[in-house]
Amino acid sequence: MRILLVEDEDKTADYLAAGLEESGFRVEVARHGLDGRHLIEEAEFDLVILDVMLPGLDGWELLRLIRRQSQVPVLFLSARDDVEYRVKGLDLGADDYLVKPFSFVELLARVRSLLRRGPLRARESFRVADLHMDVLRRRVTRGEARIALTNQEFALLQLLLDREGEVLSRPFIASQVWGMNFESDTNVVEVAVRRLRAKVDDPFSRKLIHTERGMGYVLEARA
Fold it and tell me: Which CATH code, of 1.10.10.10, 3.30.930.10, 3.90.1150.10, 3.10.20.310, is assigned to 125-219?
């Protein structure tokens, strides 16, 4: 899974990046607020770890930017333990707030918790091309055709619709749909996607679920 770390303290950035990479994550590091903004606008991440005090553009502004375009989990780092700082961060849309100094073990636990959570946006329905999902009635249709899905298939399709246009990695899908981390060599996600496609895509000429080789899956209406 891919993490963006925006931290201007070199020693802290190097230490956290090395630890996260040793724990199996891919990490991009930005040491300036404007560099962080560029990466946020140009790439997709599964999690953002964001320092509050940054040169060029502070963490508050970066969080506002993130929330205008994404619901990616954000973990705030700050040397300030003031209640108003915590409240401001959470009000702006941060998912967690960790005060410096902290132990790497605690940060890693919070990272894993946020990646397991990755909450869906509150939506009652979704529509992409002729595919429609009514979440409250648990009803899925393509055009006039009703599609019967198992609970697992419904959850997988809801995740893909909620993240329409985003390439979702297999580990991320596994953590969201099954609530646990699977080993990278398991084929449970591939099997689930194949079964979902058999119902949602195969009977129809226009395909909506696409494979991005080496990356994962994305649901979108392509020309």
Answer: 1.10.10.10
